[in-house]
Amino acid sequence: xxxxxxxxxxxxxxxxxxxxxxxxxxxxxxxxxxxxxxxxxxxxxxxxxxxxxxxxxxxxxxxxxxxxxxxxxxxxxxxxxxxxxxxxxxxxxxxxxxxxxxxxxxxxxxxxxxxxxxxxxxxxxxxxxxxxxxxxxxxxxxxxxxxxxxxxxxxxxxxxxxxxxxxxxxxxxxxxxxxxxxxxxxxxxxxxxxxxxxxxxxxxxxxxxxxxxxxxxxxxxxxxxxxxxxxxx
Length: 233
Prior knowledge:
Number of helices: 5
Order of helices and strands: EHEEEEHEHEEEHEEH
Strand order of the largest sheet: 7-8-9-11-10
Structural class: alpha+beta
Oligomer: single chain
């Protein structure tokens, strides 16, 4: 479970505001999970994070949550509760590192600041550790994607080029017009009628990249239903 923090760097200055308590060179955070039946203690020391889960009825450590050999519905629920806490800590107290391009990092920072979002890796074979990384930016309410982050090969866009490239896919209502511009391509791995691929090598200025992402955010946002009321006199 701690691999959630691979390629993430601690932002120590955020820990106290989040609720961690400092003790010498360590930071500690505790919260109840599973409707108050368990307590999760998180320790950060030398930039490394670890945690333990205590059964509040017995006072014993619930070690099963870290034992890969342990399976079953209940231990799965405890793991899920722990993961929810860890993901929230990661969102508020860590930042992602390890991109191929600096523009990818600036994009990640922009999403975190503007939409309080982050890359979510939804597929086991496309994690931040893999050569072919695939992740998405999702609306927090509907979970619909407004951006897809992919690592692929340049040859997918320009046949004469090769080498790894990080790409952002965004939804657009101006696809036919925009693909005429340098640095904008029909979407790789998505519906080319509605989505664009934007290599993050700096060809597009940051502001244009962010504007296209903002448009995608709006186009994929959950539409509010409109209720019409009739009045009879």
